[in-house]
Structure formats: C-alpha cells, structure tokens
Amino acid sequence: MAKETRVVRSVRSLRRAIEPWAAAGERIALVPTMGALHTGHLALVKLARRKADRVVVSIFVNPTQFAPTEDFSKYPRTFRQDFRKLEAAGVDLVYAPTAEEMYPDGFATRIVPEGAALAGLEDAFRPHFFGGVATVVGKLLLQVRPDIAVFGEKDYQQLKVVSRLARDLDLPTRIIGAPTTREADGLALSSRNVYLSADERARAVALPHALVKAAESIAAGQPVSRALAQGRATLSRAGFETDYFEARDAETLAPLKRGQRSRVRLLAAARIGATRLIDNLAVPEG
Ligand SMILES: Nc1ncnc2c1ncn2[C@@H]1O[C@H](COP(=O)(O)OP(=O)(O)OP(=O)(O)O)[C@@H](O)[C@H]1O
Ligand SMILES: CC(C)(CO)[C@@H](O)C(=O)[O-]
Ligand code: BAL
Fold first, then answer.
1. Could you say which of 28, 30, 31, 41 is catalytic?
2. Are residues 158 and 28 in the same domain?
3. Same domain for 169 and 75
4. Same structural domain for residues 44 and 166?
C-alpha cells in the first residue's frame, strides 16, 4: 500500500510526526520550498529520497525575504496541486506553517549572514534577501532537525549562504546541492517563470544561452571581461535589463584573481518585463 503523505502546520505537530522516525534511527531529509512546485523541486525531492529514509518538504512563502516593493503578495500559491505532486513523489510529510507560527507576536531575533551573503550579486540588488533566508532556513533546520537538507544550485549564492550557516551554527544537518533542472531549451525552471508572457518566455532563453556562450569563451581562453561584456550584450539584445552578469570563484564567490581559470562560476540576474530571473553556470576546466 502506498504510504500516506501527511500535512502539518505547527512546530508541535511537526515534532510529533517526526519523533518516531528519529527514535527508530531513520534518516530524515528536508527540502525547503516556497511552493508553486515544478520539476526542479521534484528533482530535489528525488535526491532527498535516495539519501534518506524519510522526506519532509516545507512550503512557506517567507515574507522576510521579500522587500515591500517585491512580489510577496502575488507570488504563486498552489497548495492543492503542490500537495498532489508531493504525494505522487512519495513525500512523507509536508510542513506548511502559517506566518504566525513562524513569526509569532514579539518575534525579535534574526540570523545575519556574512561571507557569501556579502559578495554582492543578489545582495547588491536584494539587500534584505539573505537575512530573511538565513533566519527562516535556520528556523526550519532547528524545527525539523534533519540529517540532510537539499537546496538547488539554481539559487547558487543562497546554497553557499545556507552551507556556511549550517557550519557556523554547528547545526547537525548536511547541506546538499542539487543541479539545476532546465526546460528543453535551457531555461532554468523557476516558480516565477509563470509570470512570463509567451513573448517574454521565448526571449528568456537568451539568459542560459548567454551563460553557455560566456562559459565556452572563457574556457577557450578569451579574456573574462570580454566574455562577460558579450554576455551582457546578448541579454540586452533580447530585451533584458541586466542586474549582474559576473564571474566569481565558485567556492567563495570572491571576485576572480588575476588569470584565475579554475573554479570559475558565472552568475547572472536579469529582468525581462516585470519578471526577474536568475541563473548560473560552471566554466568547464580543460
Ligand atoms: N530549476 C531548478 N533546479 C534545481 N533546483 C531548483 C530549481 N528551481 C528551484 N530550485 C530549488 O528549489 C528550492 C526552493 O526554491 P523556490 O521554492 O524558491 O523555487 P524557485 O523556482 O526557485 O522559485 P523562484 O521563482 O521564487 O526563485 C531552492 O533550493 C531552489 O534552489
Ligand atoms: C530556501 C527558501 C525556501 C527559504 O525561504 C527559499 O529562499 C527558496 O525557496 O529558495
Ligand atoms: N528561489 C529563491 C527565493 C526567492 O527568490 O525569493
């Protein structure tokens, strides 16, 4: 018989559901999400299932990582469909806390990440973002106390910030990165892709194309600055406003050292119409 997928909405019922698993020595995986689930999220779930006995998926559109000008209120909320997908994927528990459960009256403590969080990139354009992410992910990891937690490489800087957070706060959870799932034409799956009009969706493919082209040029020995300038020009021709299109050290996210050709990661964020997309790619090494 297929096992049941349960939904809990409070820390108390979460703990009650998880305790027997932990007591039986079962390995628990957490996949944090904001819902509006797509195949990219389900790939994270699949990876979690391979590595653990029990999989918990959290769904929480976290208000503290959105600036007042951003899309918190219009962010897609599709709980019914999400639940069905997670049930079909064999998830044990869906943790969908309310905002009051996560941030009760009097809530007054935040985790303030440094390191990768201060590397510019997303932080330069969304200065509120990593503080909100670190605080909510810290809470989720302490609430679920999973053995592993899976995050997507699509949000590469976020993956670095979360890995550092778990190490710095001595959390017993191993953070695992999962490769980016893409559409057939290369566009990274993202919940925000639903905002794109048909015309914008057709032009959005310029983002992965510009990254692939720049990565190939750098691997072939072209100066990094020229490859990046060509990438930005490609985006501009497709009608994107580029926030950043940069090459960084893949581990630390520090700017590249002079002549650095190994451990290079390209990271980009660009706006097409009202939609902001991010993506990144490793530069292949010879
Ligand atoms: N295409 C993808 N491939 C791999 N992981 C992904 C992909 N899209 C999202 N994820 C990961 O899923 C987790 C939850 O992300 P989230 O719910 O914000 O979805 P999203 O599609 O990134 O949404 P958004 O459009 O808000 O950025 C994060 O760890 C994120 O990196
Ligand atoms: C990690 C996360 C679930 C925290 O709200 C969110 O930033 C996301 O979905 O990537
Ligand atoms: N996928 C990261 C969450 C956000 O952009 O708000």
1. 41
2. yes
3. yes
4. yes
Provide DSSP, 124-145.
HH-TTHHHHHHHHHHHHHHHH-
Residues of the chain with pLDDT under 50: 1
Q: Are 187 and 160 in contact (CB under 8 A)?
A: no
| ipTM tops 0.90 | yes
**Interval between CA 222 and ligand 2 midpoint (Å):** 35
**Cα distance between residue 138 and residue 166, in whole Å:** 8
Q: How far is the CA of 120 from the centre of ligand 2 (A)?
A: 19
30/28 Cα distance (integer angstroms): 7
What is the span of the domain harbouring residue 48? 6-178
Residues 171 and 218 in one domain: no
> Residues, the chain, total?
286
Q: Look up the pTM and report it.
A: 0.98
DSSP designation for 169: T
What CATH number should be reported for the domain holding residue 222? 3.30.1300.10
